[in-house]
Amino acid sequence: MDEPGTDALGRTDMDMPNARIMKACRNQIQLREVDLDSLLAAEHPARVVWAFVERLDLSHLYAKIKAIGDRPGRPAIDPRILMALWLLATLDGVGSARELDRLCREHDAYRWICGGVEVNYHTLSDFRVEDVEFLDGLLTNIVAALMMTGKVTLNRVAQDGIRVRASAGASSFRRRQRLEEFRKVAEEQVNRLHEEIAADPAACTKRQQAARERAVCEREERISQALKEMELLEAQRAATDDKGRKLKKPRKQGGKPDTRPIPRASTTDPQARKMKGPDGGTRPSYNGQFSTDTASQIIVGVSVDNGGADSDQLPPMTEQLHQRYARTPKETLVDSGYRSFEQMERASALGTTVYAPVAESRSDKRKKNQPVRGDTPTIAEWRLRMDTEQAKAIYKERAATAECVNAQARNRGLRQFLVRGTKKVRAVLLWFALAHNLWRIAHPMAQPLAA
Fold first, then answer.
1. Res 6: pLDDT
2. pLDDT given at position 363
3. 306 and 331 part of one domain
4. Phi and psi torsions of 121, nearest 5°
5. Contact call for residues 87 and 405 (beta carbons, < 8 A)
6. Could you tell me if 357 and 389 lie in one domain?
7. How many domains are there within the chain?
8. Is 358 inside any structural domain?
9. DSSP secondary structure letter of residue 304
């Protein structure tokens, strides 16, 4: 018989002799006759994701499977399962492979996608970032198919950057001298480990030996990569002035003392750079770029850079869109961060008309949209164009497109990368683009913006 219980008021069963209650019995064995398919509603997002994945061409992923016919080896997990898991996880704001592994065991929607197939976080983590080019091609194919149906026109796009915190910590950035010391220590650790294994191979299991060797080798590789990034930072520093502008002539030896901070590189994520975030704080980050079709809010281009400025990102994105779809957007909407005359000239030469706000005039005698001496025909035309009512109406679509896409990405967990390096970061951004486009296709706007 159970011991007398106590309720919220401190009363025991002895104080309530006439009360009839049903107590919880958690050691009773129950047999539930239920199938996974009946656990989800007909319009559940997991079903939408799976229907989307079933229509994708994943032949590239199937061609990589080595378990074929009578060949020995364990059967591989269906790539459609892994693809659907990460798309649903991205929509739900889950960015950790370990968290996704837990959901596959405990959450009905993820269990439904798995359908009894066991997955682990190693497989999930590797699948997410191992084939960036495939994800990039998948984005191109999806948008190209939408262009054939007329849902995406690419007549007008809005581009905006989204700075996301990197996996590296601020304290991981070191100067060259310190990095050289770390590399020597890492090399000594690798040599010492090899000597220990050779002296007593039976001291630990093969799995333990492989894990130890992998750890020290990865550390040595990260230090070496940090030194390579240091060379790039030093070359960049030598080619710019104290305000970060490019020098027309090499810096003279013995001239004015250089007061800029000494370059530092991270030992955990060498390609990350310290940049100013949306809250005004400075931290290791990456600068992602999304280009979005204004008529459909479909993401058509994705890139990543470790520079803190958006001004150099306009022409590369325009070139990327032309390479993807053999078409250059007629109009490109950007904010004031892209307002570089040189870059706007390059983008205009590629065949797109740039819409960007004009800076306020420093002189009270001149209107801000009036051309000034030294303006090229392209810049003078841009100033006059932005003063028209038609241009002002067109530019209003930028906030409703680019800002909306960035806000949705933030809401889906794009606040800090859990992967390291520009290649893996680009893979994560592509997952966000694919998940966003999936949702836009399944839930189109009731009244889309005019093209």
1. 64
2. 65
3. yes
4. -70, -25
5. no
6. yes
7. 3
8. yes
9. E
Residue 325 shares a structural domain with residue 421: yes
* Same domain (yes/no): 84, 192: no
- In this structure, are residues 257 and 303 in contact, taking their beta carbons and an 8 Å threshold? no
pLDDT tens digits, 42-57: 889 999 999 999 999 9
pLDDT at 140 over 90: yes
Residue that is last in its domain, among 266, 299, 329: 266
Whether residue 1 has pLDDT greater than 60 = no
Three-state secondary structure readout of the chain: CCCCCECCCCCEHHHCCCCCCCCCCCCCCCCCCCCHHHHCCCCCHHHHHHHHHHCCCCHHHHHCCCCCCCCCCCCCCCHHHHHHHHHHHHHCCCCCHHHHHHHHHHCHHHHHHHCCCCCCHHHHHHHHHCCHHHHHHHHHHHHHHHHHHCCCCCCEEEEEEEEEECCCCHHHEECHHHHHHHHHHHHHHHHHHHHHHHHCHHHCCHHHHHHHHHHHHHHHHHHHHHHHHHHHHHHHHHCECCCCCECCCCCCCCCCCCCCCCCCEECCCCCCEEEECCCCCEEEEEEEEEEEECCCCEEEEEEEECCCCCCCCHHHHHHHHHHHHCCCCCEEECCHHHCCHHHHHHHHHCCCEEECCCCCCCCCCCCCCCCCCCCCHHHHHHHHHCCCHHHHHHHHHHHHHHHHHHHHHHHCCCCECCCCCHHHHHHHHHHHHHHHHHHHHHCCCCCCCCC
Whether 451 shows a pLDDT value over 60: the answer reads no
Domain assignment of residue 151, yes or no: yes
Name residue 282's beta-bridge partners. Answer: 276
* Residue whose token pair is 């028209």: 388
Question: Burial code of 389-407, b = ≥16 C-beta within 10 A, e = fewer?
Answer: eebeebbebbeebbeebbe
Same domain, 321 and 398: yes
Nearest CA among 193, 185, 203, 36 for reference residue 110: 36
- Domain shared by 242 and 320, yes or no: no
Residue 203 domain boundaries: 173-266
* Domain identity same for 71 and 140: no
**pLDDT at residue 32, as a whole number:** 74
Measure the CA–CA gap between 4 and 2, rounded to whole angstroms. Answer: 6
Residue 248 has pLDDT above 70, yes or no: no
Q: Above pLDDT 70, what percent of the chain?
A: 89
